[in-house]
Amino acid sequence: MRILAKSDIGKLRDMNQDSYYVSDLEKDDIKLYILADGMGGYKGGEIASSLAIANVRNFIVNNFKNTKKDRESLLRLLQDSIEYANIIVYEKSQEDEELHDMGTTLDVCLVYNNKVFIGHVGDSRVYRIRKNIIRKLTTDHSYVEKLVREGTITKEEAYNHPKKNMLIKALGCNSLVEPDVICKGFLKDDILLMCSDGLTNMLRDNEIYNLLLTNPDNPVDALINNANDLGGYDNITAIIIDNIDINQESDNINETNINN
Question: Which residues contact 24 (CB under 8 A, 6 or more apart)?
Fold first, then answer.
C-alpha cells in the first residue's frame, strides 16, 4: 500500500479547520485513516475536527484487538467510535458559549482483509477508483443531496446551488448522531480517496479522476494545487490509499494536524 496525505489552508481562509490522521504502515497494526472538516466560529471548527479525529482513533485502537473480525462487528466498532466522539465534541461545545455552534464532518476508513469499513457523517467524501472508474462510496448529508435524491433538482443544479454547503447532519451538533457505516471491497490496485469539500466544491468527479490518472507520482499535490488554482475558497484535505502490490516501492507520508 501507498499512503499520501496533505491538508492545505486554501486561498481565502485564515486558519485550517480540517484535520486528518493516517496510520503508519511500518509501525501500526491497524490500517486506519480519518478525515474531518470542522465548522463553527473562529476556533470552534478546529477544535471539533481535532477532537473527533483523536477520539475516534483512540476508541478504535483501544477496542480493535477485542473486536471480532467479522463484517458486522467491525461496522459496529466504527459506529460506536463515531457515536463516542460525537458525545465528546458535543459536551465540549456546551462548556463554552463561543463553541456552541461547532461541529465537524467525519470520514473513517478501516482497511482489513481486502475490505474497507467506512464510517461517514457530513459532506466530506470517500471515493474508490477501480478499473478506470471513479465511484463515490459515501452519500453527502447535505440539503442539496436530499433534493437530488427526492428528484427536486438535478446533480448539475446541485453543483451550483446556493445552499450546497448546508448540512443536515454533522458530528457534535447534537447529543446523538447516526453515522452511515458501510463495507466495500478493496482489491489490489484499487485506490481510495478521502477528501473534504474544499476539494469537491472546486473539482468535479471526472476532473478528480483525470488528475489522479495523469499525476501518478504526486496525485495529492495535483488535486490541491488545482483546487487552489480554481479559487481555493475553503481548506482542502486529501488522503489517498493506493492498494498497490506490497512488493512495489511505496511512500508513507504522514502529515497530521494532531499528535498521534
Answer: 252, 254, 260
Query: In whole angstroms, what is the distance from residue 76 CA to residue 252 CA?
Result: 28
- 199-220 residue pLDDT tens: 999 999 999 999 999 999 999 9
Residue corresponding to grid cell 490518472? 213
CA distances from 139 to 71, 72, 120, 126, 143 (A): 20, 20, 8, 9, 12
* Rg, Å, the chain Cα set: 17
Residue showing cell 474544499: 198
> Cα separation of 89 and 84, whole Å?
9
Instruction: Set out the domains of the chain in order of their start, with CATH numbers.
Output: 2-242 (3.60.40.10)
- Condensed to tens digits (0 to 9), the pLDDT of residues 167-183 reads 999 999 999 999 999 99
